């Protein structure tokens, strides 16, 4: 029955400023949980760093965040780094990024499936594969962003939760169940939202990593050694870099007030 499981790809969007061991751990936890349901087969993971247009204070250039993510995930045989979102001239809505990746991976998956069927015995009639799914992977604090006024458009929340779905890994004392309960949209699609509990306590955050680096403190075992070496080589996360975008309003708050995005061409 394993071959009848729904193939699924996990997509993580965010600053990754810098990528941490906890970011990578989310993928492993999510995959274990989804496999334990007996319904899904995770076939890939994607790390998609946000573009420089996001406007967040202390955000280093995308080229550095991409390079660090690639170094960190060098040992993974199923999670990759995608540069599309980071290369966009403006900040991209999460739902638009999901549409892009779904179209891309669906095309690749269908091509592989067609090739497999072509190479199979002519006497065999292969069963049709379940449709590929893409779900947004996030931490528990992400669900709370849906409540921030002006940050999300209602139709975007509806599409992310209803059409795609989320896999939310809790950390610390955060309670994602409360966020789902408090939102009519999330509650309506709760069957498409998977809440994963991390029992091994790990509250590592990129914010704390940057703070430690600014103060000349060790971050060993919080982020990969290769990433630490890259940070030192390029003199990242200094007091000067933390002032980058200071006083700038986050791009989502200004862009979301404009016309809703209905397609990749908008």
TrEMBL record:
CDD domains: NMNAT_Eukarya
PANTHER family hit by this protein: NICOTINAMIDE MONONUCLEOTIDE ADENYLYLTRANSFERASE, NICOTINAMIDE_NICOTINIC ACID MONONUCLEOTIDE ADENYLYLTRANSFERASE 3
Pathway listed: Cofactor biosynthesis; NAD(+) biosynthesis; NAD(+) from nicotinamide D-ribonucleotide: step 1/1; Cofactor biosynthesis; NAD(+) biosynthesis; deamido-NAD(+) from nicotinate D-ribonucleotide: step 1/1
KW NAD (keyword) present: yes
One Gene Ontology molecular-function label: nicotinamide-nucleotide adenylyltransferase activity
Keyword terms, alphabetized: ATP-binding, Magnesium, NAD, Nucleotide-binding, Nucleotidyltransferase, Nucleus, Phosphoprotein, Pyridine nucleotide biosynthesis, Transferase, Zinc
GO cellular component terms, A-Z: mitochondrion; nucleus
Subcellular location, principal: nucleus
Domain Cytidyltransferase-like: start-end pairs: 11-211
Family: Belongs to the eukaryotic NMN adenylyltransferase family.
Catalyzed chemical reaction(s): beta-nicotinamide D-ribonucleotide + ATP + H(+) = diphosphate + NAD(+); nicotinate beta-D-ribonucleotide + ATP + H(+) = deamido-NAD(+) + diphosphate
Protein name as it appears in the record: Nicotinamide-nucleotide adenylyltransferase
NCBIfam families for the chain: nicotinate (nicotinamide) nucleotide adenylyltransferase
E.C. number(s) listed in UniProt: 2.7.7.1, 2.7.7.18
Subcellular location: Nucleus
Region annotation (Disordered) ranges: 242-266
Biased composition (Polar residues): 255-266
Cofactor: Zn(2+); Mg(2+)
Assembly description: Homohexamer. Interacts with ADPRT/PARP1.
Species annotation: Seriola lalandi dorsalis
